[in-house]
Prior knowledge:
By secondary structure, this protein is an all-alpha fold. The protein contains 15 helices and no strands. It has helices at residues 3-15, 27-37, 49-63, 66-78, 83-91, 94-97, 99-115, 133-145, 148-152, 160-177, 184-198, 202-214, 219-233, 235-244, 246-249.
Amino acid sequence: MNREERTGQKMQELFHSPAAGEEGTDPEFMQILQRYIFGELCYTGSLDNRMRELVTITVLTVLNTLPQLKAHLGACLNVGCTPVELREAIYQCAPFIGFPKTLNAIGVLNEVLTAAGISLPLPKQGTAAEGERYEKGLAIQKPVYGDEIKDRYTWLPGPFDEAVPRFLTEHCFGDFNTRTGLDGKTRELLTVIILAAMGGAEVQVKSHVEGALKVGNTKEEVVCALVHASAYMGIPRLFNALNTCKELLAEG
């Protein structure tokens, strides 16, 4: 298939609609967009439609681009993502982008699910009781990241020298990474995408790329996810992520 044919096929798979023609006010731009994303990027690398769409909704949540998020949440359902997977992908953005943007994305998700006839609220996925958040969070954090954060911020004035590392463990890992609905490998890959899409978080990108590799993602999968995300977050943020992780992602 040529690029136009691949675009038409992928548009049907994701959106159940034809590729852009000459209709609308900006047909040339839409053709450039669709042929690059759906005719080229979607056919480069190993990730399947389901994983690519989870990557896409993660980037769009970070960027707070809600009309596009709505369209791709529908595409996620079309390619077999479960409602719980969509919710978990969005929920876990909160520690990185803050609660307001995450709430915006949750609102759009709930609109899409309601329109699809899916009843809300979805089944609970939390596994850490109130008194277990630190211990269960640490059980996920320490094997992958060690005590790096705890050791790094001992210089903070009290009580923050203790509270900041604890908040990271309890909130990022205890509140979110202990949840079911997404496996640890997927969560770590999507975390890399969250941080790359934010921009300016290259230190954390490198740390989480290392973590993503430790929990079973391949170098090719990490690069594929970043390259796919670049259509939404922009090429400079792709290059920033790749350059900061070169020694981790290079072949050999």
